[in-house]
């Protein structure tokens, strides 16, 4: 499978197809839950919205890949080397999701969001601890303002126990 995904075009095509499939599945499942209206959102509103956005990104990526294929000479010769899988990044992302689930249940929205974003930001080796902390604080504050105060999401800011 390494040779199949060696070119950037092949990776882009595969990513576009996966986004299209994922977006279609999420939009279909979200629609089944009941969308509601903008002022009275149903449980399927955000899944449907995210599914449609994933479909749009998949279409744009696929279109960009097709247009680039019709363009100038291929630039994939530089990208033929095999890329190793970054286990640290994948592990940190999975850990960030697990932390959000556990801390969301036992600690509330603010600690769960902070820890999730911090761990996800540390998955990128290019981020320093300072940058990851600043990002975690910013996303936590913005998330609380939008979802906690603005949309009054029924997710306690802090919940010990």
Structure description:
The chain has helices at 8-32, 45-70, 87-106, 109-122, 129-150. By secondary structure, the chain is mostly helical. The chain folds into two domains: 8-79; 87-150, no CATH class. The radius of gyration is 20 Å and the shape is globular. 18% of the residues are buried.
Terminus-to-terminus distance: 46 Å
* General shape: globular
Helix content: 55-70%
**Low-pLDDT windows of residues:** 76-82
By DSSP, the count of extended strands is: 0
Q: What gyration radius follows from the Cα positions, in whole Å? A: 20 Å
SSE string:
HHHHH
- Portion in strands: under 5%
Protein structure class: mainly alpha
Number of domains: 2
What is the mean pLDDT? 79
The number of helical segments is 5
**Strand count, sense and closure of the main sheet?**
none
């Amino acid at each position: 499978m390494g040779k199949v995904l060696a070119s950037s075009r092949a990776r882009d095509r595969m990513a576009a197809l996966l986004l299209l499939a994922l977006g279609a599945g999420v939009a279909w499942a979200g629609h089944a839950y009941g969308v509601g209206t903008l002022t009275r959102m149903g449980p399927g509103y955000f899944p449907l919205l995210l599914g449609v956005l994933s479909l749009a990104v998949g279409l744009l990526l696929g279109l960009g890949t097709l247009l680039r294929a019709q363009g100038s000479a291929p630039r994939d010769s530089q990208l033929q080397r095999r890329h190793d899988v970054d286990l640290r990044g994948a592990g940190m992302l999975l850990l960030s999701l697990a932390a959000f689930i556990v801390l969301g249940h036992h600690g509330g929205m603010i600690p769960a969001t902070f820890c999730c974003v911090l761990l996800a930001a540390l998955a990128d080796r290019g981020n320093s601890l300072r940058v990851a902390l600043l990002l975690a604080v910013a996303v936590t504050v913005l998330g609380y303002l939008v979802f906690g105060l603005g949309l009054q999401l029924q997710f306690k800011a802090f919940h010990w126990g």
